[in-house]
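Quick question: who can interpret this fold?

. . .
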Amino acid sequence: MLGRTRSSLAVAVLAVAAAGCAGGGSGSGGATIGSMEVTSSAFAEGGGIPVKYTCDGGDVSPPLAWSGAPAETKAIALTVLDPDASDFVHWLAANVPTGLSGDGSIPEGATGSPAAGTEGRNSGGRPAWYGPCPPSGEHRYVFTVSALSERLNLSAGFSREQLDQAIEGKVLASGTLTARYRR
């Protein structure tokens, strides 16, 4: 069961986004799922994650920003997964603070602070950023930001499965940023 649910958020977001692009997708209230832009001042799409943000450096959570969230956004959810390691969870966050428009950012080193919202359990078992630490070779890290129609009722330390269930039917828009790290 756990193996099936590990990728359910990514699959659900991609499926809904694809259906939305085809004109048949809908989110809460029948609205088409929108697309958001996710960026980091520390690395570019497809680029390398600097050592500072990994287990080989300071294990500092990276800065992230997003735009394109619908005006009706009430909450932001964040997942960071390693698809090259069976969707190893590096970071989960819910109810991340946003601007009035739903756009926003998470500053560098925000894990463990209110700026990261309510953090869920990573695959290391703690509610915090778990920097890239592939056993060997290069791995991809997918940062997904989802704009939600309502705040989530989750407590610190929630699981990936709990987040997946909580956002079901609430995703207004989403976007991803993929970066790499090699050891």
About this structure: Confidence is low (pLDDT under 50) at residues 1-28. The chain has one domain: 2-182. The longest strand covers residues 171-182.
